[in-house]
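Ticket #4471: complex job returned nothing on first submit. Input attached below:
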Amino acid sequence: MSKRKEKVRIADQEQLSPGIFSLWLETPMAEEVKPGQFVGVYPKDASRLLLRPISICDVNENRTRMRLVYRAGGAGTKELSTYRSGEELEILGPLGNGYDIEAIRGKKTLLLGGGIGIPPMLYLARELDQAGVAATVILGYADSKTFLREEFDRLYPTYIATMDGSLGTKGTVIDALNENMVFADLACACGPMPMLKAVKEFAKDAGMKAYISLEERMACGVGACLGCVTKTTAVDEHTHVNNTRVCTEGPVFEASEVEL
Amino acid sequence: MNLAVNFAGVELKNPVMNASGTFGSGQEYAELTDLNRLGAVVTKGVAATPWEGNPTPRVTEVYGGMLNAIGLQNPGVDVFIERDLAFLAGYDTRVIVNVCGHTVEEYCEVVEKLNGTSADMYEINVSCPNVKAGALAFGQDAKVLEQTTKAIKAVAAKPVIMKLSPNVTSIREMALAAEAGGADAISLINTLIGMKIDIERRRFVLANKTGGFSGPAVKPVAVRMVYEASHAVKIPVIGMGGIATAEDAVEFLLAGAKAVAVGTMNFVEPRTMEKVVEGIEAYMERQGMKDISEIRMD
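Support reply: We reran it on our side without changes. The output follows.
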């Protein structure tokens, strides 16, 4: 499974909710990517040089297409949102470690996704479903403008939390977790830093293992620049200091191994 | 057609290499580009002991370039020799080890440990803008630079390249100081000190506040400085700063550089250096040149 830079064709792009886009790419990479991995998408505007790290949301059934769901927040992702089916993009991937399905197999699992951390949990949910893992999904949104919700619903029981209370539990995924009394052996989470900190605490208190997927500003995506490090509890095997590369050793970490 | 150059006594199969810090130790890019095609691999700065580097965010994009404030994070020279140098020994390319330190003694300690290894040359980083103690301090004062060069040359068993900072009043004066200290070569430019402010959050984007500015946007500044430095000294120059294409590289060669380095663009297109080598050949072909040394202005 070697990393490569590829020119890929856009199969489809649509807006799921305000500012959230779903992009299907035709690429042989779809055959080998793992849940939790990401790709770097390059803007075409030459004033914007660096790859945009975007997590893999899904692959199609015969693994010829890969889906990215992203927020068009900055200039680069806004540019990306203007491209249509038939146009080409350059991507670098597959990047990062991804989730280890074998480590989750047989365990009752919680899948927690917050905001733009929701998309990678869909691919994970699909693979866990195929592996026969029993899981519950909790998704946190800002408000009732949700996305991908129905697709999780088809795979696993899915609870919703909204910060404004317009849908499901008012508050965060942790509030929804407490309200619905969901018990599990293990949690997998992706979302904003305050949520991941809360998940780490929750898992520690519950004596539960948690795998969290981190995000950090990065330049190279392949472990060369050391831009995207996160602090670690132990000395890292590669860096020989107390930090590790999110793009290479991560983005998925056992929560107790990283300092948030 | 001959692209080989003798650079400060070391034969390079072509004059194209990476800029330190943009290519890891080569290993990170080995599956994305062919290291055997490169004149040299310049490794990320290494110190006597492991350095943690700066807090994050360490990198951000700016128009036509980027800012970085990594802070010279590195695993220390012992791990470097055992792991990274050993890896590079498997490739047919020269190895230039970038050396950093907080004190002259630390630079010397690293160089002494590298003397018995497969490293071909040393590039001394006296110009990192992101480390408070040392680094840039050695590269912004001509007298200090000369003395630092002298001290390192006294212990170095391989050619020494002093990497110059563009954040100085006179690059000519700094180039002359390195030469006076006995440097075998100089390389420039390191990054320009920059800053980016997030206007919505009203905060600095980088945790370090300032960062080194690199990428295609800096090229005209770099070409000018390489021209000034290479015309001030007799020792050879590695020119770098915003090289994205073979045409950019040729511009640096015409400005007076004997070799060129690709930096930020490695992040954008890992095969940039290979393409630069191919493009220089194409340029020589259309100019009717047989030897790379013919790329010069009269």
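Residues 4-95 of chain A form a domain with the Elongation Factor Tu (Ef-tu); domain 3 fold (CATH 2.40.30.10). Closing as resolved unless it happens again.
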